[in-house]
Specification:
Layout (H helix, E strand, L loop, with lengths): L2 H20 L2 H12 L4 H8 L3 H29 L1
Length: 81
């Protein structure tokens, strides 16, 4: 990677961290369990003591929120250029 790409990737990584931190506790929890701990949905349901469907719902909502934050960020960034 060239230095500009490294910088851009760091910026995107930081924005993802910020987006995760904007989630409420229940949605942040499933994102961390899935993507940082690598748990399956079934394992996550056991850990947080909820049904599999609840885990799926929380993951979908969390991903949608993160996606909307990143889309907004990227569209703003595009306007700057």
């Amino acid at each position: 990677m060239v230095p500009e790409q490294v910088l851009e990737q760091k910026e995107i990584d930081q924005k993802i961290d910020e987006a995760i931190n904007q989630l409420d506790d229940t949605h942040r929890e499933v994102i961390i369990l899935k993507y940082f701990w690598g748990l399956s949905e079934k394992e996550m349901a056991e850990v947080i003591n909820v049904k599999d469907g609840t885990v799926k719902s929380r993951l979908n909502r969390a991903r949608a929120k993160i996606q909307s934050i990143l889309i907004e960020y990227l569209s703003e960034k595009k306007e700057w250029r």
